[in-house]
Write a structure and sequence with these properties.
This protein has helices at 2-45, 74-80, 94-102, 178-195, 233-250, and strands at 64-67, 107-115, 119-126, 129-135, 145-150, 155-156, 168-170, 202-206, 213-219, 222-229, 256-258, 266-267. By secondary structure, it is an alpha/beta fold. The protein has two domains: 49-126, Ubiquitin-like (UB roll); 129-267, 3-Layer(aba) Sandwich (Rossmann fold). The strands form two sheets. Strands 6-5-4-7-8-9-10-11-12 form a nine-stranded mixed beta sheet, with helices on one face. A three-stranded mixed beta sheet has the order 1-3-2, with helices on one face.
Amino acid sequence: MAAREQTSFWAGVHWMRFSLWLAAGMLLMVTTMFAWRGTEEFLIQDNRFKLAEPDDFGGRSPNLIVEGIHYASTAQVRHVFAEDFGRSLYLVPLQKRREQLLAIDWVEDAAVSKIWPNTLRVRIHERQPVAFVRLRPNRRDGMTQLALIDKDGCILRPRVAARFTLPVITGIRESEPLENRRARVRRVMAMLREIGSLAEQISEVNVSDPNDLIVAEHVDNNVVNLMLGDDNYTDRLQNFLMNYGEIKTKRPDAKTLDLRVDGAITTVGEEQSEQ
């Protein structure tokens, strides 16, 4: 009987200790919640943490620092944070704002950070154009549109005066899926890398069919369209240049030549080989 009473006593002691620890834990949790709630309200309501309204500073808030912009629209970047001005820095959703920045055409990557008590810093990494792209004429005036394109197929329109020495690509539609534009651009860039210095005489590359690149070659003050196919670009161009004098003599009116068969040059529409 004594053993049972002793066991019951110690069980009661353990239960009491557990209850005390549980109560202490609950009290600590509630206290922490109230303390955090008070801190949160302080961060939200205190004017020291608010981003200054742009209207008070000539349209630009001194509390928004934007770095890395050259060609992207500064107005578009600042507009992303329009609803944050006049509110606490604590409330700014950094990940959401970064995703909104990435939706701007020239922005390849972005980082947004808070500098307490009341400043946002935005670092922009812009896309780098690799070529001009000649787009279909617009419906309003029928004029051909010339834009820029990067290695990922993103269409870029500069908003400030800038000079770029880049090849021109045709055969890309702005309405086609991004992955299609990316594949076409990368096919052109791979060809230009392969031919090296021979690219200096090429003014335009048609990539309507990515498996049959057509280049506009400048030679002897003439422009000749060359169908290169999808490989052996260097050999085919060198073969053309070595035999251009003979081709010009035999067919001075030839404007498009088919080089897709190695070692042969054929005038488009003719079956007879020139080499």
